Amino acid sequence: MKVSDGSLLGEPGRTPLSKKEGVKWQRPRLTRQALMRCCLVKWILSSAAPQGSDSSDSELELSAVRHQPEGLDQLQAQTKFTKKELQSLYRGFKNECPTGLVDEDTFKLIYSQFFPQGDATTYAHFLFNAFDADGNGAIRFEDFVVGLSILLRGTVHEKLKWAFNLYDINKDGYITKEEMLAIMKSIYDMMGRHTYPILREDAPLEHVERFFQKMDRNQDGVVTIDEFLETCQKDENIMSSMQLFENVI
């Protein structure tokens, strides 16, 4: 059972139960085990070819798809994945998406498989749009692994900027209450009853109200990227809960 409060950022102003007094919070180090809990990584690696093939195979395979990604060396420089990890991710990506592009329906299928107890359709839609940087309805391998690298191995600042982009549904540079509520509800719907403690139906709205009370400094009804980053980085509970990305990505 996954334990989550249903948001990507935890609850503002509430001290984590595991936090000891006087102990400075440190960003959790992502282990291989944690990496394997990521739904998108599981999906990709389940389709990856055996690892016994020559390491140059992936370089040769790059020309075998209709959309040719950048070289693995360039992607290694852009991400925090090793070349071997990128080779494994690429093999799986190519097997699942022979055209070199992944569409929204694929995201919905992935999350319906990993969260069968709930309805993942809406969350998969929002997550796909966050990965689809140019908004053309398809995600290239490069965009896919760059996004994964931020979420799984990025700095707290990078993860928070990515989270802001997820919440900013219409990409106008602001988060409204309606946008944050839509994301929160989609996560609750996906998690179903597999959250602890069990959530009330009005929990998403209460959560959003608490966030906006803390984040919307000038009370103009929207949260800017600066307000979002400043508030989150000053709230140790939010910082500690950044590892929740592992539960819903």
UniProtKB/TrEMBL annotation:
<dbReference type="GO" id="GO:0005267">
    <property type="term" value="F:potassium channel activity"/>
</dbReference>
<feature type="domain" description="EF-hand">
    <location>
        <begin position="203"/>
        <end position="238"/>
    </location>
</feature>
<dbReference type="GO" id="GO:0015459">
    <property type="term" value="F:potassium channel regulator activity"/>
</dbReference>
<dbReference type="InterPro" id="IPR002048">
    <property type="entry name" value="EF_hand_dom"/>
</dbReference>
<dbReference type="InterPro" id="IPR011992">
    <property type="entry name" value="EF-hand-dom_pair"/>
</dbReference>
<keyword id="KW-0633">Potassium transport</keyword>
<keyword id="KW-0631">Potassium channel</keyword>
<protein>
    <submittedName>
        <fullName>Potassium voltage-gated channel interacting protein 3</fullName>
    </submittedName>
</protein>
<feature type="domain" description="EF-hand">
    <location>
        <begin position="155"/>
        <end position="190"/>
    </location>
</feature>
<feature type="region of interest" description="Disordered">
    <location>
        <begin position="1"/>
        <end position="24"/>
    </location>
</feature>
<dbReference type="GO" id="GO:0000978">
    <property type="term" value="F:RNA polymerase II cis-regulatory region sequence-specific DNA binding"/>
</dbReference>
<keyword id="KW-0472">Membrane</keyword>
<comment type="similarity">
    <text>Belongs to the recoverin family.</text>
</comment>
<dbReference type="Pfam" id="PF13499">
    <property type="entry name" value="EF-hand_7"/>
</dbReference>
<keyword id="KW-1003">Cell membrane</keyword>
<dbReference type="GO" id="GO:0001227">
    <property type="term" value="F:DNA-binding transcription repressor activity, RNA polymerase II-specific"/>
</dbReference>
<dbReference type="InterPro" id="IPR028846">
    <property type="entry name" value="Recoverin"/>
</dbReference>
<dbReference type="GO" id="GO:1901379">
    <property type="term" value="P:regulation of potassium ion transmembrane transport"/>
</dbReference>
<dbReference type="GO" id="GO:0008076">
    <property type="term" value="C:voltage-gated potassium channel complex"/>
</dbReference>
<keyword id="KW-0813">Transport</keyword>
<keyword id="KW-0851">Voltage-gated channel</keyword>
<keyword id="KW-0106">Calcium</keyword>
<dbReference type="GO" id="GO:0005509">
    <property type="term" value="F:calcium ion binding"/>
</dbReference>
<dbReference type="GO" id="GO:0005634">
    <property type="term" value="C:nucleus"/>
</dbReference>
<keyword id="KW-0630">Potassium</keyword>
<feature type="domain" description="EF-hand">
    <location>
        <begin position="119"/>
        <end position="154"/>
    </location>
</feature>
<keyword id="KW-0479">Metal-binding</keyword>
<keyword id="KW-0406">Ion transport</keyword>
<keyword id="KW-0407">Ion channel</keyword>
<keyword id="KW-0677">Repeat</keyword>
<dbReference type="Pfam" id="PF13833">
    <property type="entry name" value="EF-hand_8"/>
</dbReference>
<dbReference type="InterPro" id="IPR018247">
    <property type="entry name" value="EF_Hand_1_Ca_BS"/>
</dbReference>
